[in-house]
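fyi for ur records
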Amino acid sequence: GRTLRYPGAFVQASDSPLKHLGPSPTVGQHTAQVLAEARESTSAKPTPRPASTEPVAPLAGLKVVDLTWYMAGPSTTRMLADWGATVVRVESVARPDGGRGSGPALNGRHGPDSGGYSLTHNSGKLGLAVNLTRPESRAVLEDLVRWADVAVVGYSPRAARNLRLDYGSLSAVNPQLIMLSTCLMGQTGPLAEFAGFGNLSAAIAGFYEIGGWADRPPIGPYLAYTDVVAPRFSFCSVLAALEHRERTGRGQLLDLSQAESTAHLLSPAVLDVQVNGRVAGRHGNDDDHAAPHGVYPANGEDRWVAIACPDDRSWQALAGAMGRADLAGDPALATLAGRIEQRRELDEAVAAWTSSLTAAEVQDCLQALGVPAHELLDSAGCWADPQLQHRGHFQELSHPLHGTVRVQGPRLHFSRTATSVHRAAPPLGEDTFEVLHDLLGYDDDRIAELAAAEVLE
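which gave:
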């Protein structure tokens, strides 16, 4: 009978708002209701696509305008490109993507086309140089919006309004447009104008207070955390909006707040404080459901191995591998609760064992026994990892300035459709002529006039 608060809609959708969800159901609570609704369902079905003997990308034919920068927006549009969408990335010398020059830099040399984030997140896209601050650029942008199915905008609400990249302006040009706005705090509310990077929204959402060690200042999760998590919500939101448009013919605005969507990952902590009065805090690598659980030193300089014992069986296997029959037979350690109570002593015992072996030796030994364990990999280790190699996680692409670059491949593989990253991230404006001429139908004279007006820079 209690009322609890928990994260709600992860995106504000103007034409198909997410439903308000009820409490978690008991087992089988809605079986009769679901079966009845399935029998009575008369909802329209999407028009089936003709069968093809050749693998076709899931989003082949989808047209996307990318007006984003750094990580959250480019990561979203990169996934669309991997699935077959034609993505046109709009930048200019006056307003380049800051991610182009941010580290890690290719071969350690910083430059406008050497930023590691940009090279991987913008692979598979076309590069169009248009200076949106020039009055003559508006016609180009509107033609691009008419061409597009989806526009992804990463500007703050104020910047979007100033450049007339708000939904009202763009939907007036293309009423069927699906526009995704992805910024820190969303388009409305008292913090809507708060601009910045994902480390700020992660701090506001509550992640930094619980990240780190109890006796040290908070450190939070690595990097601009919401920039990594929010694109997963953004991507699914665009797919849902496309399905909605296929059924209804209507476009819409998807207003996604990075902080709001990522806060869903804190749902257990939000409920725990309300139900049990427990406020989440910093506890390093400790886990409430596993012990031993941590990252332990291995033989060699700065080499480490992660180990987790989530149950009694894995604990017995670890103790046996360590040659510690005394620990395996200790009744005080026979249960998870007992091991958690003595976790510091266990951490010391595990570290004494792992430090005498290489990380790979510990990993192979424990994995063979069914104990979750893996050596910590640096970049070179990830590249050489046999599982990632088998999955094609890293791919080599030909880049016009750098020769060969290595980037992450598509995140998902499908059994009947193709996903791929087919080209390297474009240097600024690399495909300007092709986009204007081939996609928008501009003739050479029109393109020359735009160049003379300093629009294409």
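The first strand starts at residue 12 and ends at 13. thats all i got for now
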